[in-house]
């Protein structure tokens, strides 16, 4: 039972938590239920959202799997056999965590769940709006600090990470204490995608993660005093499909105005598409794959059965390699993606090649 910072009077809660005690180890060898202690020099941080595609991942690279799908003991055993960590997803309503007692019991529950499932830490993914001078602002930093202390104490070698937006500049009205949070955990996973969640200029379709915009985010995090070694770059393995209200000759696709957290337009006008779907569609499209030099990203236009033009922006090995080169040149902690399930893991020869190239693009080339 993890009792990190839990005030004594909450001992009343304990019978509830006790049910989550460690179960039997289901791995072929008991040693595989041991948490991973090795600290890799370079992180390849993978989000997995379920099912069995993980069997086809490139395990020669993976260091951490954030298990956002249903818990799969087989995945845990396999990851451990490859020396990779498997971590929980952590999300909680920020209104609740203002109360230190609630925070402590939330943390205790997560540590117990991690222990019962032989997991190696937690990835805290809170994308909620926070006002700068609000109790939530302080409470969030405290949550990360207390979670890290408790995990590190209770599970040797465990890892606690926190997901942040592509830029620290109040994206989506998230005012977080980034330096405090970075200090308080092992590293930040920077979600360098959904970068059009707030479009302040013209309402037109654009790249999910334009090269310059992506780099600006890292420059700003580093300028705040956050070490590059505390930053893992997240790249998208999905794109956005937008319906064009109008598609100009030079491929400017005007989109519907869908406001988001104060901005007049957003990527919510489009819908997300996994790379595997994009790869099936791109060759048959009106334009074929095009390269936008300003954004250093590929896109294509297609016509739907109703006769409307769509523009699809995505990332491919070419755009990802450019970002991976930045990861290496600026000494970031590592790279990762949302999410590993987006690729085509079927036996089809072309799909295999495309999938291999996407994994390969994570490796910074010399
Ligand atoms: C932040 O402050 C604004 C204005 O005071 C308020 O409307 C909004 O609900 C607040 N947001 C949160 C998440 O507390
Ligand atoms: C951020 O958090 C750290 C650690 O709790 C604290 O020392 C610092 O004052 C906070 N910074 C801001 C701007 O709130
Ligand atoms: C659509 O684009 C065409 C070509 O650029 C332009 O002539 C036309 O005015 C645009 N229509 C609207 C409704 O914006
Ligand atoms: C699409 O085009 C590319 C480049 O020409 C080619 O390598 C690939 O085999 C094509 N894919 C399909 C599904 O036809
Ligand atoms: C991207 O950044 C580079 C270096 O700062 C600059 O030279 C270039 O003009 C920028 N490109 C765009 C499209 O903003």
Automatic annotation (TrEMBL):
GO terms for cellular component: extracellular space; lysosome. One of its GO terms (biological process) is oligosaccharide catabolic process. The keyword Hydrolase applies. It is found in: Lysosome. Keywords: Glycoprotein, Glycosidase, Hydrolase, Lysosome, Signal. Residues 1-23 form the signal peptide. Residues 1-366 form the GH18 domain. CDD domains: GH18_chitobiase (cd02875). PROSITE patterns: GH18_1, GH18_2. GO terms for molecular function: chitin binding; chitinase activity. InterPro entries: Chitinase_II/V-like_cat, Chitinase_insertion_sf, DIAC_cat, GH, GH18_Domain-Containing, Glyco_hydro18_cat, Glyco_hydro_18_chit_AS. Belongs to the glycosyl hydrolase 18 family. Involved in the degradation of asparagine-linked glycoproteins. Hydrolyze of N-acetyl-beta-D-glucosamine (1-4)N-acetylglucosamine chitobiose core from the reducing end of the bond, it requires prior cleavage by glycosylasparaginase. This is Di-N-acetylchitobiase. It comes from Mus spicilegus (Mound-building mouse).
């Amino acid at each position: 039972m993890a009792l990190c910072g839990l005030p004594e009077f909450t001992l009343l809660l304990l019978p509830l938590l006790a049910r989550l005690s460690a179960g039997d180890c289901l791995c072929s060898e008991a040693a595989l239920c041991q948490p991973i202690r090795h600290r890799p020099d370079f992180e390849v941080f993978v989000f997995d959202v379920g099912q069995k595609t993980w069997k086809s991942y490139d395990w020669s690279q993976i260091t951490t799997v954030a298990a956002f799908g249903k818990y799969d003991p087989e995945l845990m055993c396999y990851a451990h056999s490859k020396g990779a960590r498997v971590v929980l997803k952590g999300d909680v309503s920020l209104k609740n965590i203002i109360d230190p007692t609630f925070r402590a019991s939330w943390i205790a529950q997560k540590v117990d769940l991690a222990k019962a499932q032989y997991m190696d830490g937690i990835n805290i993914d809170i994308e909620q709006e926070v006002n700068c001078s609000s109790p939530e602002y302080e409470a969030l930093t405290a949550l990360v600090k207390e979670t890290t202390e408790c995990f590190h104490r209770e599970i040797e070698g465990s890892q606690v990470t926190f997901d942040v937006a592509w830029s620290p500049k109040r994206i989506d009205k998230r005012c977080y204490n980034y330096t405090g949070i970075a200090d308080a955990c092992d590293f930040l996973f920077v979600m360098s995608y959904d970068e059009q969640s707030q479009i302040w200029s013209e309402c037109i379709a654009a790249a999910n993660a334009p090269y310059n915009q992506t780099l600006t985010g890292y420059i700003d995090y580093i300028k705040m005093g956050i070490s590059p070694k505390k930053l893992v770059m997240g790249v998208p393995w999905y794109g956005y499909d937008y319906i064009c209200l109008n598609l100009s000759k030079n491929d400017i696709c005007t989109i519907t105005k869908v406001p988001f957290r104060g901005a007049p337009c957003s990527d919510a006008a489009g819908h997300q598409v996994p790379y595997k779907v994009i790869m099936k569609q791109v060759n048959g499209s009106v334009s074929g794959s095009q390269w936008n030099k300003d954004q250093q990203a590929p896109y294509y236009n297609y016509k739907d059965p109703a006769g409307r033009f769509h523009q699809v922006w995505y990332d491919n090995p070419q755009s990802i390699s450019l970002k991976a080169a930045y990861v290496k040149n600026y000494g970031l902690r590592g790279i990762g993606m949302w999410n590993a399930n987006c690729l085509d893991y079927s036996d089809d020869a072309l799909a295999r090649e495309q999938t291999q190239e996407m994994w390969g693009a994570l490796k910074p080339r010399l």
